[in-house]
Amino acid sequence: MKKLIQTLKNIWSIEELRGKILFTLMMIAIYRVGSHIVLPGIDPNAMTNGGEGNTGILGLIDAFSGGSFSNASIFALGIMPYISASIFMQLMTVLVPSFQKMQKEGESGRKKINQYTRYLTVAVTILQASAYVGYLEGLAQGSPGMIYGNYPFLLSSILVLTAGTMFVMWMGEKITDKGLGNGTSLIIMIGIVARLPQNFLQELSAKSVRNGQILVFIIEIAILIAIIMGCILLIQGVRKVPVNYAKQIVGNRQFGGARQFLPLKVNSAGVMPIIFAQAIIFIPTIFTNFNTSGQSGFFAALTDHSNIWYMVIYSIVVIGFTFLYTALIFNPKQIADNLKQNNGFIPGVKPGQPTADYIGAIMDKITFPGAVLLAFVGILPGIAQRLGVTQQFSTFFGGTSLLIMVGVILDTLQQIETQLLMRQYDGLMKSGRIQGRQTASAVQM
Predict the structure, then answer these.
(1) Nearest CA-CA partner of 238 in 402, 408, 438
(2) Domain 14-194 sits in which CATH superfamily?
(3) Could you tell me which CATH number the domain at 202-445 has?
(4) What is the mean pLDDT of residues 346-365?
(5) Closest CA to 80 of 286, 351, 382, 296
(6) Which residue in 47, 132, 228, 258 has the most C-beta neighbors within 10 A?
(7) What pLDDT shows up at residue 439?
(8) What whole-number distance in Å separates Cα of residue 365 and Cα of residue 359?
(9) Alpha carbon of 428 to those of 21, 182, 229, 433, 434: distances in Å?
(10) Choice among 50-59, 112-121, 307-316 with the minimum mean pLDDT
(11) What is the pLDDT of residues 26-51, one digit of tens each?
(12) Domain ranges in the chain?
């Protein structure tokens, strides 16, 4: 406890770090206040079918937005349209030569890509906002007096929702520039964590109603802690490939000759495959204005994450996207060239193409178990719901929610620890440094 208090004092004593923390907290507070501001033209007291009735895909969307989706707030769509646009632009920089050239132009190219991403975000938000307004009109049929107006409400709501998403995107960029951690990821995490206390109390209430169920609740919490520890291992797990560097003598000094390791991530794709899979399964709900109730057959399976067919399809898509995304972002040829340029080599492997083939073969071997584990984490919420956990609380047992929370917390703690070590303070942990989700795409010299 004494060590913790001293660490907090050290953090607060660093002026730059203190400013970053206060700025981040201010942006988070603004985001949470905006999440409770209802769209103009809606009577919040007349909304009888809110987030508590959302299940399946809609429950996940509501969890990501911190309840803004079910509250019909100005931030109902949250940061997800920007995430979708960013993923699309990231794929374009890999697949389209003109975007590849733009990315290599440095700062000017990055600004152009960011500008295109913002334009695409506006288009995606307008599409999703139109579907969301249709969803609200469907709710209004069961709640007379909920919506005031018709055509003017449609236009004003689309405009406000688009402006709200762009404002959230701006806050995320400002947090990244002037705050602590990645702003976009942090906003998503805050939306997820905001629902945790309420869902925790709902689960506790549901289990304490029946005799003997409180023991089941304690077991659930123990399993949740074990899953979180497993996610940390999945995010930080690496395969260390030994690398030697040739000795060089310059004057009276010797350089190189040391043995280092090339860390290859077991889950180098991160949370992206799960986001891709959910985005694909989420597409049908857009064309039905988010109205998933009353559906049957195959479509109903795609909107219920506790359905067996959903788990099977979802797992296959996640595994496929894991291999695809890893192949897009991981370049063994570039790593082999970097090793060769810096007089590095893997013992027993010839430099050049043989080294690239060797690294690629290792990545294929470790990507498969990583993809299977990632798919298993993705379907854990559905498994938890089938075992009796409430739908809202089950989202914290795995999937994107848990991986984002664990990853963002590790990244933020890593930045705080870096600031402490730069000023010769003790780190946050005695046994080693905290590692984030950084992917080793090149050899660090």
Answers:
(1) 438
(2) SecY subunit domain (1.10.3370.10)
(3) 1.10.3370.10
(4) 88
(5) 286
(6) 132
(7) 39
(8) 10
(9) 16, 20, 18, 8, 8
(10) 50-59
(11) 999 999 898 888 888 777 666 654 44
(12) 14-194, 202-445
